[in-house]
Amino acid sequence: MSTDTIMSRLYNQHGDLYKGVFDCLGKTIRTEGFFAIYKGFLPHLARILPHTILTLSLAEQTNKLVRKIEQKILPAAEFGGAH
């Protein structure tokens, strides 16, 4: 991500190469081009994408299961006198 690239350069600089966030951003874009701030994006995406897909799929399946259980339990509770 762009902010990660800039912050990484600031933390790992030797000496006083950058004066701050905007100085680092400007120097990076001037010397390496705009897309240099997105270095590491594809490996990050490859790492996070499977996790995100699994998490969303699991959440969807869990919600379906909860709805099924609620449909079975709630009508039975109405006849039991619970309100």
TrEMBL record:
<protein>
    <submittedName>
        <fullName>Uncharacterized protein</fullName>
    </submittedName>
</protein>
<keyword id="KW-0677">Repeat</keyword>
<keyword id="KW-0813">Transport</keyword>
<dbReference type="GO" id="GO:0005743">
    <property type="term" value="C:mitochondrial inner membrane"/>
</dbReference>
<keyword id="KW-0472">Membrane</keyword>
<keyword id="KW-0496">Mitochondrion</keyword>
<keyword id="KW-0999">Mitochondrion inner membrane</keyword>
<comment type="similarity">
    <text>Belongs to the mitochondrial carrier (TC 2.A.29) family.</text>
</comment>
<keyword id="KW-1133">Transmembrane helix</keyword>
<dbReference type="InterPro" id="IPR023395">
    <property type="entry name" value="MCP_dom_sf"/>
</dbReference>
<keyword id="KW-0812">Transmembrane</keyword>
<dbReference type="InterPro" id="IPR018108">
    <property type="entry name" value="MCP_transmembrane"/>
</dbReference>
<feature type="repeat" description="Solcar">
    <location>
        <begin position="1"/>
        <end position="65"/>
    </location>
</feature>
<dbReference type="InterPro" id="IPR051508">
    <property type="entry name" value="Mito_Carrier_Antiporter"/>
</dbReference>
<dbReference type="Pfam" id="PF00153">
    <property type="entry name" value="Mito_carr"/>
</dbReference>
